[in-house]
Amino acid sequence: MNVLLTGQFGAAERGAWADALAQACPGVRWLDDDAARAAPATVRAAVVANPAPGRLQGLPALALIQSLWAGVDRLLADPTLPAGVPIARMVDPMMNAAMAETALWAVLALQRDFFVYARQQRARQWQPHPQRRADETRVTVLGLGEMGRTAAQAIARQGFAVAGWAARERPGRSVPEGVQAVLGDAALAARLPATDVLVNLLPLTPATRGLLSASLFARLPRGAGIVNLARGAHLVEPDLLAALDAGQVGHAVLDVFAHEPLPPDHPYWSHPRVTVLPHVAAATDPRSAAAVVGANLRALAEGGPIAHLVDRRRGY
Ligand code: NAP
Ligand code: GLV
């Protein structure tokens, strides 16, 4: 089977993917963009990492687009994306575990004032603060999907009072023990005043873009923590800066930004109550993710069910 591998990779990264995919997908002939253009009718699948718009056009036998990214917002934003070709996204338990580590670290650091102590250290200030208990710290995780569920579970296991927000009732949804499911907009509005730390793990869709805005921050208890690990466009940056400066938001941990890399003159870099990470909350690791790709390419070859299909209408 001929498969196109395309997208935005550094040179070393592309090499790592090529090696891991070759091992995980025996029988696949990997094509780059030029090779695919030379024999477009032979390309059965495309394995993609946010390819430039237009890269997937003109491939008449294309039967599967497999994303190496968990979030498919940039892929779906390509107006030339071939209609009707199934899209699968990356779902890798190792990646979910990495995300849970990042979310738990941020929640613990907010609960125990570790970001405050880091700030105090820079000012040579010895100032203990009252110690908060985990079970008195209320955490709301936006998103109860692959990442949200795993993160909510890890945080609940640490003793926090955790709720997870999802869009709708889903038959067979598994909600981790100790996590209260909160479904729909009205239930979220009711939960926000009881949220000390808000962790965002939503997909970016028209319904979720700009959700982290002034009106949401205003519903939180004064001094709440914000942890955005999903997409920069979920958050309205001027609204966050205003809420931080007013003390309505106590501290923000941000891994994702409207413009990445974060521009050198951005106010977040030097804001005392913002922690910046360079989009590293959960990287796709070729060592485990290649096997996920291999399973879907095998299913395609054998006519079996493709896993982790994206609902184009919902956008995730
Ligand atoms: P997922 O499995 O598709 O889960 C999405 C969850 O969001 C579902 O629970 C869904 O609710 C909920 N949701 C979607 N729209 C909603 C709405 N309008 N209102 C309420 N809930 C809504 O996605 P995932 O694998 O967990 O990934 C989530 C996101 O994490 C990705 O899209 C990506 O943006 C981000 N991510 C970031 C990094 C990083 O390094 N920073 C790495 C990987 C992924 P239902 O269950 O009811 O449908
Ligand atoms: C990373 O942000 C991803 O969506 O995989």
Any overview of this molecule?
With 316 residues, the protein is an alpha/beta fold. The protein folds into two domains: 2-92 and 285-302, Rossmann fold (3-Layer(aba) Sandwich), CATH 3.40.50.720; 94-276, NAD(P)-binding Rossmann-like Domain (Rossmann fold), CATH 3.40.50. The protein has ten helices and twelve strands. The strands form two sheets. A seven-stranded parallel beta sheet has the order 8-7-6-9-10-11-12. The chain has a five-stranded parallel beta sheet with strand order 2-1-3-4-5. The longest helix has 19 residues, at 93-111. Bound molecules: NADP nicotinamide-adenine-dinucleotide phosphate and glyoxylic acid.
CATH-level-2 architecture of the largest domain: 3-Layer(aba) Sandwich
Q: How many discrete domains? A: 2
Outline: elongated
What is the count of DSSP helices, taking H or I runs of 4+ residues?
10
Largest pleated sheet? 7 strands, parallel
Overall mean confidence score, pLDDT: 97
| CATH structural class of the largest domain | Alpha Beta
Structural class: alpha/beta
- Spans with pLDDT under 50 lasting ≥5 residues? none
Strand content: 15-25%
How is the largest sheet built, in terms of strand order?
8-7-6-9-10-11-12
CATH topology grouping of the largest domain: Rossmann fold
CATH homologous superfamily caption of the largest domain: NAD(P)-binding Rossmann-like Domain
Distinct ligands, ions and cofactors found in the model: NADP nicotinamide-adenine-dinucleotide phosphate, glyoxylic acid
Provide the gyration radius in Å.
Answer: 21 Å
Order of helices and strands: EHEHEEHEHHEHEEHEHEHEEH
